[in-house]
Design brief:
The chain is mainly α. Helix content is about 75%, strand content about 5%. It has 23 helices and two strands. Strands 1-2 form a two-stranded antiparallel sheet. Strand 1 and strand 2 form a beta hairpin. Helix 2 (about 25-45) runs parallel beside helix 5 (about 110-130), helix 12 (about 240-265) runs parallel beside helix 15 (about 295-315) and helix 18 packs antiparallel against helix 20. The longest helix has about 30 residues, at about 320-350. The radius of gyration is 22 Å and the shape is globular.
């Protein structure tokens, strides 16, 4: 068993063990097992970074074993500079989620912790899979734990939100499966993703396959106009569910574009780039304005996530090194920042049990230590230089200006709305006089909450000040992807 298999199956194994501890008296033991499991799961991902060879676009840490031999399906894993950081990010966020739910979750604690650990393994599997069937298995498997997390531990409308989330993402994925079966037939009976990258496909076939994959990946990102499931899912999900949904699950769709759509279907990707850029611009500008009028904190940050992911898809479909690297950096940065934003909302909700902005005011007077963390994360959400939120967005804006000045200008101008809704919410919730007795009685963050927020603060500042480790790892793989997309497969 290689490092990638350990990264996938270690959290799943710990999750399975937790399901055996269902008695209420075992809740304390369950929490510690979950924390130990998440830490070990993160530690086994570190060799992927330490042993990663820079300067090559080849897949590394490859594992390949026959799985369903009759159909030539293999248990085939590997990572390159595009995917390796998302494996580490997933394992890191899982630790945060376990810490965040330590005291908050009192009902079915073992099932709650198990769901997140199993979900972590499935998501890492998505980023590591190099076989089409294996990728589809992990891609769909992630729906089940998240469906349960929303449906069991969510808010009053949790059943509606869970069904909407499940159906939206499942229906889109069926078309992706059809596309994979077509590629299997065209490749002479292979589900190997690297083999698919070399297939000579006609323009018509590429276009049909592009939109079949678009149905799965665009919903998962989510891109406008198939984003409407996200605010409902975020509002009803428990804090941990919102953190994982924003920090990792949205990245699965964006990853699908760079692993499948662009290298396998380069001609269609270039032909329909105008549509992808237009939808990304709408997400950045229009959805940013929608966020500005929200009264629910979770809905505001959910719409903010749609807008920020618009930068990701925009960067990808500019087809240059800077844009694709910027999109990937933005994905990682958004994982840290959006996770921290939802964690901050969870801290407030645990004390007042309201997500309404109007229910707060003057929080910094009651919770000064918490206010410092919140200010950092809000500034990162605005794209303040020196924070993780700045690096990726700035790279995408520069790449846009290279392609078309007016496109870059529109994208840069849209950053104003991001600053507007972030600062507007921070002013209303944290600044001013104490608004009511609930806020006056709020206790500042405890050691557990401080630890979770501090870990994310270090990540946000560290990436903002020194992004070189991230860009160095992805450089060769991004250059190879740009070269792949530039070569026409048409005869």
């Amino acid at each position: 068993m290689g490092w990638l298999s350990l990264a996938i199956w270690t959290p799943i194994a710990f999750g399975a063990v937790l399901l055996a501890f269902g008695k209420p008296s075992q809740a304390a033991l369950v929490r510690w097992i979950a924390l130990i499991g998440s830490v070990i799961s993160f530690l086994v991902t570190l060799p992927l970074y330490n042993g990663f060879k820079l300067g090559t676009a080849e897949m590394q840490f490859v594992e390949k074993t026959p799985w369903i031999e009759r159909f030539n399906v293999n248990y085939h894993l590997g990572v390159d500079g595009i995917s390796v950081w998302f494996v580490l990010l997933t394992a890191f966020i899982t630790i945060i989620v376990v810490i965040a739910g330590w005291e908050v979750i009192q009902r079915k604690v073992n099932q709650y912790m198990a769901a997140f650990l199993i979900l972590s393994g499935f998501m890492i599997g998505v980023f590591a899979a190099l076989d089409g069937v294996l990728f589809y298995f992990f891609f769909e498997a992630t729906l089940i734990p998240m469906y349960l997390i929303i449906g069991v531990w969510g808010g009053p409308n949790r059943i509606y939100a869970a069904f909407k989330f499940f159906l939206y993402t499942l229906l889109g994925s069926f078309l992706m499966l059809v596309a994979f079966i077509y590629l299997y037939a065209q490749s002479g009976g292979s589900f190997d993703v690297m083999t698919w990258h070399k297939l000579p496909l006609s323009n018509t076939a590429q276009t049909l396959l592009f939109f079949a994959m678009f149905a799965a990946f665009a919903v998962k990102v989510p891109m406008w106009p198939v984003h409407t499931w996200l605010p409902d899912a975020h509002v009803e999900a428990p804090t941990g569910g919102s953190v994982v949904l924003a920090a990792i699950m949205l990245k699965l769709g964006a990853y699908g574009f760079v692993r499948f759509s662009m290298p396998i279907l380069p001609d269609a990707a270039r032909e329909w780039a105008w549509l992808m850029i237009a939808l990304s611009l709408i997400a950045v500008i229009y959805v940013g304005l929608v966020a500005l009028v929200q009264q629910d904190m979770k809905k505001l940050v959910a719409y903010s996530s749609v807008a920020h992911m618009g930068f990701v898809t925009m960067g990808f479909f500019l087809f240059n090194d800077l844009g694709i690297s910027g999109g990937l950096v933005q994905m990682i940065a958004h994982g840290f920042v959006s996770g921290a934003m939802f964690l901050c909302i969870g801290v407030l909700y645990d004390r007042v049990h309201s997500r309404e902005i109007a229910a707060y005011g003057g929080v910094v007077n009651s919770m000064p230590r918490f206010g410092v963390f919140a200010l950092l994360f809000f500034m990162a959400n605005c794209g303040l230089p020196g924070t993780a939120g700045f690096v990726g967005e700035w790279m995408v804006v520069l790449a846009s200006v290279r392609e078309n000045f007016w496109l870059g200008l529109m994208l840069a101008t849209a950053l104003i709305s991001g600053a507007a809704y972030s600062l507007w919410m921070f002013k209303r919730v944290y600044f001013g006089d104490i608004a009511n007795q609930d806020v006056r009685q709020m206790a500042d963050i405890n050691g557990r909450e401080y630890a979770a927020l501090a870990l994310l603060a270090v990540a946000v500042v560290g990436m903002g000040v020194y992004p070189k480790p991230f860009t160095d790892v992805m450089e060769a793989s991004v250059a190879n992807l740009v070269q792949q997309v530039a070569i026409s497969k048409l005869n």
